[in-house]
Amino acid sequence: MDRGYMGKILLVDLGTKEIHEEQIPDEIYENYLSGMGLATHILYNRIPAGADPLGPDNILGFVSGLLTGTGSLFSGRWMVVGKSPLTGGWGDANCGGTFSPAIKRCGYDGIFFRGISKKPVYLYVNDRKAELKDASDFWGKDAVETEELLLEKAGPGARAAVIGPAGEKLSLISGVCNDKGRLAARSGLGAVMGSKRLKAVVLDGNKRIRPYDREALQKLSRKCNKWVQFQLPLGPGVAIGYLGTLLRILPTAMAMDGMVYKMLLRKWGTGGMNQMSPEWGDAPVKNWKGSSVDWPMKRSKSADPDMVKKHERIKYHCYACPLGCGGICSLNGKYAETHKPEYESVLALGGLCMNEDSDSLFHINEILNRAGMDTISTGATVAFAMECYENGILTKKETDGLELTWGNTNAMIALIHKMINREGIGDILADGSRVAARKIGKGAERFAVHAGGQEPAMHDGRQDPGFALHYSVEPTPGRHTIGAGLYYEMFQLWKKVKGLPKMWPFEIYHKNKKYRATKDQAKAAAACSQYMNVVNGSGLCMFGTFIGIKRTPTFDWLNAATGWNRTPEEYMKIGQRIQTVKQAFNVKHGIDPRANVLSGRAVGIPPQAEGANKGRTVDISKMMSDYWELFGWDAHTGMPGEETLNRLGIES
Q1: Which residue has the higher pLDDT, 129 or 651?
Q2: What is the DSSP secondary-structure string of 459-471?
Q3: Do β-strands 312-316 and 326-331 pair in parallel, antiparallel, or remain unpaired?
Q4: Whose CA is closest to 27, among 40, 38, 35, 43?
């Protein structure tokens, strides 16, 4: 019966060159969905404990979502998964573009690789065959050039996911690229792909994706699209920045309706928050030690949303996306075509390093996209190096003559090239700030801001404690794409899921209430994790879900695609199961959940003396304990208990 999923995965052993299909029982989809959920089931059971992330026993997977290709909107996300060489535990990276439906059109819900090839190869799959081909001619080329050459060879209907030089050189902050610069950047999975000598995956299938009730899906999508298209006129980008100033000054806050953020996305993309966030206290500055005082509006104008947007010549839409928050830009004759830098990239390469050169944001973004290196971790590692230089831990001799002073754009660009090529000081920094701090020593650890080895994103938990909590408790630590107080407000899950609290009885509340570690705060955080596992099992975009559960009908889409007729509570239980399996994966591989807690500086230990987050400290220990307890895990250790594993049907 048609259920939206394909019912098969492709298994590739790069060591033996064996390729075969495997049927997946319906009950696995019923318990885990597809996408992220299917991946957790496969990897938890098949990667042996203690496996070297860069060795033959690690499994690298590319998965689509259950809703991809069914007629639902926002369903173009794909994920790459594996044991992370950066954190040592569960690793995943989420990406948009056009690669997700290509996986299913080849007849699979996922493609999984194990083993190591003796020479560089790429996988080519169409409707009739799957084969490994020699990639020696592509090894050493950047991600964009490689993709162009492979698709020219495969034909116009093909899609490709590739690594660049950073992945080939096993940088632990490298990712996987598609659509000439869309990067599945986090967890260092580009290094896993490089370690297997797998340069690319090229897909060119035409199989039909068959949902249970396509007409119902389309009806739901038309209704959702009316909300997406609704748009009020917005002022200039700088006005949004000054709105951040107002939010900083006011003693009260207002619960956010995701329609407001959607309007920012529709006009500017993620860059609509470029100036607002530092003013508001949402964006870290100067390696997390600075504040809105160090990065005021007159300095952040280099990232003015209108400045970024003026280079945009056409909107970029991922598959099945009616919003189009991306953009294809051209820049002063330097680039005929480049992706618009996202918020995370602009803030990591801008305010975090005190870089005020607006053109450099485009330039560095393009360099890193082509190299296949994570902009968040790169910016954070450069900022770490700059603070080490400021404090005499790194000298000019040790930096190969580079003056790593704050805001030195030329030195920053030169350093990033060294990181990509693993040259000199760049070789030390290419694996992120935690690894670099251990190699450098001399007290450098106090300047490395990370959670379990992964640098957190450009959202400050001292402004929204939900970010600090999720950075610390997620099986893939340091991630901003799961939950926050702000996200819970926008998801509005209490309107569909029984038993969830409406966080703020009134739309306006005093800011201090956010910093109380209450049971309702923990319930909200746990609900975000559960819901985002459902979203990632479906292949949906987080931005689409921000307009609220009654406008983006995730649960109804799933029922129409599968015919299951399940309640929202039943889907949230699936999300709980997926989260628990990821946590069990970490425990299996020797990760102590308590070790993933965010660096003290980023939770306000000690609190800042000035700026938007002055005097704030997050009660992270209490928040983590409450969160773990709600999941049925040990409240002190974060270990999933036997009773919880049995209740969720997970083998211990």
Answers
A1: 129
A2: --TTT-HHHHHHH
A3: antiparallel
A4: 38
Number of residues that make up the chain: 652
Distance, in Å, from the CA atom of 374 to the CA atom of 74, rounded to the nearest integer, reads: 23
Residue 201: phi and psi, rounded to 5, are: -125, 120
Is residue 395 within 8 A of residue 365, CB to CB? The reply is no
Question: Which segments of 284-405 are extended strands (E)?
Answer: 312-316, 326-331, 335-339
Q: DSSP letters of 212-223?
A: S-HHHHHHHHHH
- What is the separation of C-alpha 152 from the centre of its chain, rounded to a whole number of angstroms? 29
As a whole number of angstroms, the distance between CA 77 and CA 227 comes to: 21
Angle, to 10 degrees, between the axis of helix 375-390 and the axis of helix 433-440? 30
Cis check for the bond before 606: say yes or no (omega within 30 of 0). yes
Mean pLDDT over the full length of the chain: 97
Chain centroid to Cα 113, Å, comes to 21
The answer to whether 80 touches 92, Cβ cutoff 8 Å, is: yes
Q: How far, in Å, are 23, 235, 310, 319, 545 from residue 263 at the CA level?
A: 43, 11, 18, 20, 14
Q: Which value, to the nearest 10 degrees, does the dihedral of the CA atoms of residues 649, 628, 506, 490 take?
A: -60
For the stretch 44-73, pLDDT in tens is 999 999 999 999 999 999 999 999 999 999
Contact (CB, 8 A) for 266 and 525: no
Cβ-Cβ contacts under 8 Å for 417 (sequence gap 6 or more) = 367, 423, 426
At which residue do the structure tokens 């006011």 appear? 250
Give the closest residue to 195 by CA, choosing from 181, 226, 222, 174: 174
Looking at residue 652, its pLDDT comes to 63
Q: How many helices (H) and strands (E) does the chain have?
A: 26, 17
Residue found under tokens 């806050």 = 253
The torsion angles phi and psi of 244, rounded to 5 degrees, stand at -60, -40
- Residue with token string 């060879």: 153
CA dist 84 and 66 (Å) reads 24
- ∠139-141-146 over CA atoms, to 5°? 95
| pLDDT tens-place string over residues 614-644 | 999 999 999 999 999 999 999 999 999 999 9
Q: Which helix (H) or strand (E) holds 62?
A: strand 60-63
Instruction: Return the bridge partners of 8, or none.
Output: 23
Confidence of residue 407 (pLDDT cuts 50, 70, 90): very high
Q: Is the pLDDT at 1 greater than 90, yes or no? A: no
Residue 86 has pLDDT above 90, yes or no: yes
Residues 538-561: tens digit of each pLDDT: 999 999 999 999 999 999 999 999
DSSP string, 555-588: HHHHHHHH-----HHHHHHHHHHHHHHHHHHHHH
Confidence of residue 242 (pLDDT cuts 50, 70, 90): very high
Counting Cα atoms < 13 Å in the Cβ hemisphere of 200 gives 36
- What's the pLDDT at 504? 84
DSSP one-letter string for 91-136: EEEEE-SSHHHHHHHTT-SEEEEES--SS-EEEEEESS-EEEEE-T
Q: What are phi and psi of 373, to 5 degrees?
A: -125, 140
The tens digit of pLDDT for each residue in 472-519 reads: 999 999 999 999 999 999 999 999 999 999 988 878 999 889 899 999
542-573 CB burial, b ≥16 within 10 A, e <16: bbbbbbbbebbbbbbbbbbbbebeeebeebbb
Mean pLDDT within 365-382? 98
